[in-house]
Amino acid sequence: MKIEGWLFAAGAIFFGLIAFIYLWLSADLIGFVFLLFTALLALIAGYYMLYTARRVYPRPEDRRDANIDEADPDYGFYSPHSWWPLAVGFSAFVTSLGFIFAAWMFAFGIILILITASGWLFEYYYGDHAH
């Protein structure tokens, strides 16, 4: 968890610097506060991960002398040929456009999300790849 903690800490420093640069260049207080809150959220996550990394046994990813076979071998099953994630993403895009343009588009997007998420969920229950 040390790697993730340091990444979040670096993000906190980055967003903190950007917040003050943004305030200096634009004099926009609201944008400054949002960027500062982003830095603080990254700082909270980074502190938690670094604090937890000190208290728990180090993972193989955190040790320099670790071997590849020490990591958890079960990462789950991910379909290499599936087009359903693209369809679900398009459905989410249509739904988000419905927030902007019209209620009917939002309703149509919800219907599309239900159809495409069902297709993705039941992908291995029918067709060539049925189990």
Write the topology of this structure.
Blueprint: H1 2-26, H2 29-55, H3 84-100, H4 103-121
| Overall mean confidence score, pLDDT | 89
* Overall number of structural domains: 2
Secondary structure: number of strands: 0
Distance between the termini: 37 Å
C-alpha geometry: flat
Helix content: 55-70%
Spans of at least 5 consecutive residues with low confidence: none
Percentage of residues in strands: under 5%
The main β sheet shows up as:
none
Secondary-structure class: mainly alpha
Protein model, in words:
This protein has helices spanning 2-26, 29-55, 84-100, 103-121. It is mainly alpha-helical. The chain has two domains: 2-64; 84-123. The longest helix has 27 residues, at 29-55. The model has no long low-confidence stretch (mean pLDDT 89).
Provide tags for this entry.
single chain; 131 residues; mainly alpha; 2 domains; 4 helices; flat
What's the short story on this structure?
With 131 residues, this protein is mainly alpha-helical. 67% of the residues lie in helices and 0% in strands.
